[in-house]
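User: Run a structure prediction on this.
Assistant: Running it now.
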Amino acid sequence: MTAWKPSCSLELLQLRATVLHTIRDYFYKQQVLEVETPVLCQAIGTDPYIDFFSTQSFDSSPLYLQTSPEFSMKRLLAAHSESIYQITKSFRQGESGRYHNPEFTILEWYRVGFDLTQLMDDVASLLKLFLKETRFSATAERLSYVDVFERYTGLDALVFSLSEYQEVAQAHELPDAVTLCGDDHGAWLDFLFSECVQKHLGNKGLCMIYHYPCILPSLARKVESNSLLVERVELFVSGIELGNGYFELSDVLEQEARFAQDIVLREKNNSVKVAKDQRFLAALHNGLPDCSGIAIGLDRLLMLIAQKESIDEVLAFPVNKA
């Protein structure tokens, strides 16, 4: 007989509803506006390491299931300059496993007038509402990327020596590193961070890693006092990445240059070709207010709150049962 029952219990469905209510109540009290943006759009991000789902419109033009609501939300910010948040579905091709489902629930918010430190304060205030009920401490730890990378690899994240990075990979018995990373500094940082650093983060509570090397800029602006760093933060609990945020880049020329660099990397990796999102660039040209924003995976947060081992355990119907 065909299996039809949901993967998670009624108690976990109720927990999800409680978490969503708590989030909405938090932002309502903070006077942050809840918004909705399209899941199906005419453009997609250029990130060279994220694959996406696509389809066609009635006129055969391409449409994409969004990997994040980021660009649409920033278009709202450019138009209205008001702090906003959204709880929505996002989609990423090829991501399925213990911590991944191709369709997932994301919480994303932007605070107008906030710098990165204020954003981290905001994150800590929200997440302590949930982590205080678990085995994790509600107190957040804040560490710079450069410091924590050196602590667990012995390497300077801002200076790339291929031979030194290879030696560390060999010492940690990571034979695939050279094949996967080649001579790409950013790829080496991501690989060694995920293999050697991440497992040590957030084992007592929320850990925020901030000020990433400029080789890993994503959509963050550069640190004014040090152009080798960007105003980016990632969240970790129990070695699991929970969120990614920035003091948002507002320079349209810099953003176009980053898009162009991403597209070159996508071609190098034989990834599906994409074009720059012209509507997003037009919004930046109009003017994005100074703001900081972050996206948090709510399914992973539920995993941590419920102390489950797999994301499938907190989803009603994961991809293999959808």
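The first helix runs from residue 10 to 29.
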